[in-house]
Amino acid sequence: MTFRTRFAPSPTGPLHLGHAYSALLAHDRARAAEGIFLLRIDDIDQGRARPEWEAQIVTDLSWLGITWDAPIRRQSDHLPEYRAALDSLAARGLTYPCRCSRRDIREAASAPQEGATHGPDGIVYPGTCRGRTMAEAGPGDAIRLDMAKAVATCADLPGLIETGAAHRGTHQLEKSQLMQTVGDVVLARPGMAASYHLSVVVDDAAQHVTDVIRGEDLFEAAILQAFLATLLGRPLPTYHHHRLIRDEAGKRLAKRDDARAIQSFRDAGATPEDIRRMVGL
Ligand code: GLU
């Protein structure tokens, strides 16, 4: 099978060194494997995505010497595909509408008898709206996955193959773990065709991605995404979650306000080789 990987930035800000590392690593591996490197623009969140940022991302990647082997896939061009995936889960009775605000969830989850668990989608949902049916869904509702019902439909769960240093190995998906530490995740928010997790799973399958290469902060998300892929009958990619690029004080660059945009290094006279050195490539 031809190695196919992708870089999938959200156009909600400039590329910083952490993005450059991710993109260069994925690109170098695709080239070394004589495989395919794809660029996807994860602009499902239309409230935050900006065309200016997309243009800047394309400029920065090109300056870094990165080329992609197919036209850019933009999530906003594929909304019916996410909707179809969501509808198929709804038709199987695996979803329900939820009208809880973040605050409702925080309060319900931190009730003394509960104790909040955090998963890849934030606080594990305490289940307040679980008894509602899709027929009751209103325009202001989010759509959630009923995890208990979803795991019950799977006879066997696969193992997730991880090749990154921090979690290297096969991680067998477990029903109890999915219910306790992932829970009833949001599949669509009001005004958004699909959640980040659902759209990524649909996209990676649609783009025939064999290898997902991205930052270690998304390892927990991979457990959820691998389960969604299984539920939707999509093949599982191999995952490689790489180390995060941190500043001298050990703080994640993505979390810093000044986040050191690639553009600012370029303006200061840095070369693409300098950037490679700075990220340890
Ligand atoms: N769009 C996501 C981000 O910028 C990454 C998605 C992925 O690599 O799976 O954080």
- Count of structural domains: 2
- CATH superfamily name of the largest domain? HUPs
CATH topology of the largest domain: Rossmann fold
Q: Order of strands across the widest beta sheet?
A: 1-2-3
Could you name the CATH class of the largest domain? Alpha Beta
The helix-and-strand class reads alpha/beta
Task: Give the N-to-C terminal Cα separation.
Answer: 26 Å
The main β sheet shows up as: 3 strands, parallel
Q: Provide mean pLDDT, rounded.
A: 94
Ligand catalogue: glutamic acid
Shape: globular
Annotated CATH architecture of the largest domain: 3-Layer(aba) Sandwich
Radius of gyration: 19 Å
**Structure annotation, total helices:** 10
Bin the strand percentage: 15-25%
H-E order: EHEHEHEHEEEHEEHEHEHEHH
Low-confidence stretches: none
Number of strands: 12
